[in-house]
Amino acid sequence: MHASKCAANKFTVAVYNNGNPIRTTETADHEAIFSDLPICVPLIAGVRGHNELGEGEETRTVFTISG
């Protein structure tokens, strides 16, 4: 694993439905758990890293929870 002075030490994780945020949390762990998300619709998960220098760009991926 590469150690960097610019490594993120906290993250904002968001879930979007139709472009609108429906759940958001901040975490210092490398995981976030959400409950009661909509099923059978495409959702977007976005993750943004933060450190003392500021925040990075949000990385997004599309996913669907089957029913």
Total domain modules = 1
Task: Report the end-to-end length measured between terminal Cα atoms.
Answer: 37 Å
Topology, number of strands:
5
Query: Helical amount among residues, as a percent range?
Result: under 10%
H/E element sequence: EEEEE
Share of residues in strands: over 45%
Shape category:
elongated
Average of pLDDT: 92
Query: Low-confidence parts lasting 5 or more residues at pLDDT below 50?
Result: none
Largest sheet: 5 strands, antiparallel
Treating each run of at least 4 consecutive H or I residues as one helix, how many helices?
0
Q: Structural class of the secondary structure composition?
A: mainly beta
User: What Rg is obtained from the alpha carbons, in whole angstroms?
Assistant: 13 Å
Features:
single chain; 67 residues; mainly beta; five-stranded antiparallel sheet; 51% strand
Kindly describe this structure.
The chain has 67 residues and is mostly beta strands. It has one domain (10-64). Helices cover 0% and strands 51% of the residues. The chain has strands at residues 10-17, 20-27, 42-51, 54-55, 59-64. Strands 1, 2, 3, 4 and 5 form a 5-stranded antiparallel β-sheet that branches. Strand 1 and strand 2 form a beta hairpin.
Give a brief rundown of this model.
This protein has no helices and 5 strands. It is mainly β and 67 residues long.
Which SSEs are present, and which pair or pack?
Elements (H helix, E strand, L loop, with lengths): L9 E8 L2 E8 L14 E10 L2 E2 L3 E6 L3
